[in-house]
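TASK: fixed-backbone design
INPUT:
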């Protein structure tokens, strides 16, 4: 059992599935609303250092889906600034566990905390509303 800090967008369908996988593996979750957290570069960098803007930005965010923001055209510093200003742009979840800072549920470092979950059996990373409303366009369930 591990203590996991799970930065989420409350009510996100995949976030709920991801939390259940981690909880079912006997981990204790401390869930934090990623949209209300006071982000700074120092807080965000451990999750994204070494990544390209395209891999660290949430592609279902409204500004990305409507073409206002093009992750492939951003510098690393521009992406960080945008994500701090508008946390909906941060690819989720962000997870802190055993001194690891992990972005995304598909990071292999999460395997020891995912129990018997098998990614080939249940896709918990692709937004189920990708071709209609994005997860970020849905009303937040409280």
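OUTPUT:
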């Amino acid at each position: 059992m591990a203590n996991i800090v799970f930065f989420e967008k409350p009510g996100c369908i995949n976030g709920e599935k991801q939390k259940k996988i981690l909880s079912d593996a006997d981990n204790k979750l401390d869930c934090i609303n990623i949209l209300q957290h006071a982000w700074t570069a120092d807080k965000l960098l451990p999750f994204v250092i070494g990544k390209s803007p395209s891999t660290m930005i949430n592609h279902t965010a409204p500004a990305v889906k409507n073409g206002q923001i093009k992750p492939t055209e951003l510098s690393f510093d521009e992406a960080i600034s945008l994500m701090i200003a508008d946390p909906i742009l941060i690819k989720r979840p962000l997870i802190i566990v055993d001194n690891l800072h992990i972005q995304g549920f598909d990071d292999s470092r999460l395997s020891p905390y995912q129990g018997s979950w098998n990614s080939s059996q249940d896709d918990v990373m692709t937004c189920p509303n990708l071709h209609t409303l994005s997860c970020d366009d849905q009303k937040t369930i409280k």
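COMMENT: The helical segments are 13-24, 41-48, 53-56, 62-65, 76-85.
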